[in-house]
Amino acid sequence: MAIDTAVPSGDGSTTSPDHADGVRRRDWINIAAVSWIGVGAGITVLPLINQMSPSADVLAQATTDIDLAAIEPGQAIKTQFRKQPLFVRNLTAKEIAEADKVSLSELRDPETLEQRTRGKKNWLITLGVCTHLGCVPLGAGEGEDRGPFGGYFCPCHGSQYDTAARIRKGPAPKNLFVPEYKFTSATTVTVG
Fold first, then answer.
1. With b meaning 16 or more CB within 10 Å and e meaning fewer, what string describes 115-143?
2. Catalytic: which of 19, 108, 157, 174?
């Protein structure tokens, strides 16, 4: 025996309470449940995504600004970039000429001075890490041994670099690494 649950409407027709205006109450419950699940998933996933972002101290080390105004021609300074030593050298005209006259066929890792200085031939910026086993070469500090090629000398195993920080003798397989950098003014460079 079926029970008739039809409700008379004001215009003389009858409607079922579950299908009023074509939308059932069950549909509203489903929409509300899916909405709550979506909001809950968003609240759960957002912290997981945010924790993958680099922290403020890491972002602060992403670049290093260097004031070049105090570095005289022929002088080099040591600073840090991403917790590694960074050498910044203001090459003299004589050092530039010496680097330019070296034939690329003589080099283990052939690069011209122009390729290594990126537009301003007198500014050589390299990481101060020997490419052999990671020692810090001498030659950036005042009075340090620059080796027979006038660039850098690694005291650990004897790698010798020229004025363009290119490997000339010793066990190092590559030139000193040149990081990404750009000149932001006539006397400032941003590394990184």
1. ebbbeebbbbbbbbbbbbeebbbbbbeee
2. 157
